[in-house]
Amino acid sequence: MAHTYQRAPITLDQQHALTTAAARLAGEFDGTFGPETIERFLHTSYDQFAGRASVVNFLPLLAERFARQRLTALARVEGSLHDGRPTVLFLCVHNAGRSQMALGFFQHHAGDNALAWSGGSEPGDQVNSTAVAAMAERGIDISGEYPKPWTDEVVRAADVVVTMGCGDACPVFPGKRYEDWALDDPAGQDLAAVRPIRDEIERRVLTLLGQLGVSRRSA
Q1: Separation CA 15–CA 11 (nearest Å)
Q2: I want to staple 97 with a disulfide (CB 3.0 to 4.6 A). Which of 11, 131, 173, 205 is the partner?
Q3: Closest by alpha carbon to 102, among 71, 138, 72?
Q4: 116 near 107, Cβ under 8 Å?
Q5: How buried is residue 185: exposed, middle or buried, by Cβ count under 10 Å (0-12/13-18/19+)?
Q6: CB–CB of 24/49 below 8 Å?
Q7: Is 107 among the residues known to form the active site?
Q8: Which residues are bridge partners to 177 per DSSP?
Q9: In the 8-state DSSP scheme, what is residue 192?
Q10: Among 18, 102, 166, 194, the one annotated catalytic
Q11: How much is the pTM?
């Protein structure tokens, strides 16, 4: 029996987009998760963004992307996905600057050799435009990223959790490797001030990749 989700009214276009997203996810995770699990993750992901989104047209797309990440994490936790890749989670308060730059550098240098996610204890509304500009100077586009919360399955799936100033709000689970990177917050700073933060993040990401034995992607 289909679950009824209680939320503010949504348009027919959004309903159609969520139905289409559920079908895509069901195809991707066929044999791993049933329709009820997929719909639950998709709709709870939608609700995570609905309360703070300024542009509602993109909500189904954000929900689908976030649900895909969470379902992938759950598959790793439950042991149904074993690809052997190290998994890293970058966390900061708003998931709008430091953790997004770290994710951008990690994905750029690691390619498909490792998996990384990012999240925030109090996700912001959008990624810091100055952080986007600083990364663009290095040829890395993070403009398509979006602030999102961390969830239990994502933390549990990570081999390494890197925190950046979220303090006591950061999740702690036994058996995880934790690192805390003391970095200035780029929020409210100009491009000249963000560049050294960016460069320090890249240095730490490269060190972490070396420690994990992850080969850098060829340029």
Answers
A1: 6
A2: 131
A3: 138
A4: yes
A5: middle
A6: no
A7: no
A8: 160
A9: H
A10: 166
A11: 0.90
Residue 12 bears catalytic tag: no
Write the pLDDT tens digit of every residue in 106-123: 999 999 999 999 999 889
Residue 83 · residue 156 · CB < 8 Å: no
Selecting among 25, 88, 92, 103, the annotated active-site residue is: 92
Q: What is the pLDDT of residues 1-36, one digit of tens each?
A: 445 554 556 788 888 999 999 999 999 999 999 999
Q: What is the 3-state secondary structure (H, E, C) of 146-182?
A: CCCECCHHHHHHCCEEEECCCHHHCCCCCCCEEEECC
**What residue has token string 């690809």?**
83
Catalytic one among 170, 194, 208, 209? 170
- The string of pLDDT tens digits covering residues 140-193 is 999 999 999 999 999 999 999 999 977 667 778 888 899 999 999 999 999 999
| Other CB atoms within 10 Å distance of the CB of residue 172 | 10
